[in-house]
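Lab meeting, action items carried over

1. Structure of the two-component assembly. Owner: GW. Status: complete.
Input record:
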Amino acid sequence: MKRFLRSREALVTLLLVLLIGATGLFNPNFFKFDSIVEIFNASLTLVLISLGEMFVILTRGIDVSVGAIAGLSAVVLGTTLNLGWPVGFAVLAAVITGTLAGVFNAFGVTFLRVPPIIMTLGTLGIYRGLMRIITGGSWIENLPQNIKEPNLWGFLGVPFFVWVTLALLALTAYVTLRIRVARYFYAVGDNEQGAFLLGLPVRWTQFAAYTLAGSFAALAAVVFTSQIGFVSMNAADGFELKAIAANVLGGVSLTGGVGTPLGAAVGALFLTAVHSMLIFLGVPGIWDNAFAGAILLAVVYVDYRVRQALEVQRRQARIRGETHHQGGAP
Amino acid sequence: MNWTRYLRTWEFALAVLLVLEIVVLGVINPVFFNLENLLYSTLDFTHILFAALPLTLVIITAGIDISGVSIMGLASITLGLVWVAGVNVFVALAVALLVGVLAGAFNGVFVSRTDVNPLVITLGTLFMFAGLAQGMPALLDKLGFKAYGSAGLAAYQYEGITGLPESFIMLTEGTVGIVPYPFIAVLLFALVLSLLLHRTRFGRYLYLIGVNPKAAIYSGVPIRRVLVWAYVLSGFGAALAGVMLTSYFTSARADLGGDALLPIITAVVLGGADILGGSGTILGTLLAGMILGFLRQGLLAIGVTNDLIQVVVGGLLISAMAAKQLIHVYGEYRLKRWALSKKEGR
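Predicted assembly:
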């Protein structure tokens, strides 16, 4: 319990609750069940993309193409739907597209040994370009009603997709904390050489991480296509950077091996909530980015100071311990 | 003779590639052989070079600065706002460059004073600077300052702050003979940075920090100051790029340069800088940036769409890196074989 309170997840959750509380004081409408649900609903895309990105960051990699993968998957979904494919097949096609895009990243990083940021920066260009080539640069509109329907379903006043995402989050959390193979992500990210010497499949673990990032981005594409009902050419533009920010905010360390799915999700929720809160406080939406950036910097700075203080404490304890020991020796 | 070693450098390969590229594009489309045209077309990518050249210094220290694309917009909008306030446009230009320096200094201080990953820090400032650039005009307008220029809000949203004086526009339209001013400026900038990197102690420190930061600290390198200056130069270069784009597009906008991140990093990496630090040259970045820029111009001229060019540039970045890695792996393999044969006394 004490460990949880010290964790980054707790810090960000606390910040989130404080901000929601402060916003509520200025504008009581914010406390309504509906507006809270609305924030959850709006955060789903980023939560899903961030969850996928988390696997990559855990292995000490980085994937800046996830936004482009989401966009490409959305284009495939929209195009196949307009060709008259049943929803199930179209969704499947989108998810396969995202997964394959992830596999391509994975291949470059693990087998061609291209540094992750270079590989995914390259595929960012490739996937964004492909997306426009497929559609000829125009938006995909007039999607059939059946893709928009799931967004209207709900249970206990909470939309269907929120439940789905919560279920996926719970599943990811369970798997990464309890399943042996999933712990490989942490081992590889923490100490690649060590993991290799222990006989872990380092390459395949990294391969799986990039592939998962692609699959999650595709799921995000399905959710936002259903929510907004059309596919624009800058769909999910810039989400790769937001997903990295969400992970860092939620305590997933870019140096690998540290972080939880819950942290990534809370970070994503936080970034989305900032947007809604600014609107409720009457601040124009254009200030979004400035606040998101400032909060990210503030959180990593506080985190740095806390770590520094803990380190000093630990050293002092060690010095005290040693003097005590020496004093008792003669 | 020692000069043959220059033939085996990456920069020489890039120079050959650049000449080959111009020849091939020229054969396809003879307009390319027109020197005046060729030089004029550099205007479309000088801003990439302005940002990529000093970024090389940052990448050599094993850092990265992705906030440059936001600094471009911030510098541009600063220039516009200061000018709208009635200040001489060249003073406004200086203020814009100063903003770039300050933004770079913020990055540098944050990077050098904490152990937080530079990517995270500049990601944060990427959002922050972009947000400031977008928010500032609206805020100033609310405070009763006519920030949108004479044309008002609707025109501002559509085309930014326009109506900048002719003397400022001439900065990019003007030429010395047939060479546009910005291209001369970028060559001078490259020369200064090159001397700084290869001929001064500061430059050697950059490499040392990139190769082994601990060794740098223990040998008394003022590591914090060196890092701050590297990021300051990167911010300054991005601001120069923003100012140049403002003059080129004849309007000050908050979103200038937003899509330049991919080409900027591609230029640095293709130029031979190692993203893990410790290697890279200014000449390499300059040549790689020109290769990419002319490639783009050439493909556009023969009717290839912008989207496909994006795919080509992405593919080029990946294959260049993959090839480099393969050559590296092969080199290691040969080295091991050689060592083995020595051991066996053959």
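2. GW to write a short summary for the group page. Key points so far: The two ends of chain A are 41 Å apart (CA to CA). DSSP finds 14 helices and two strands in chain A.
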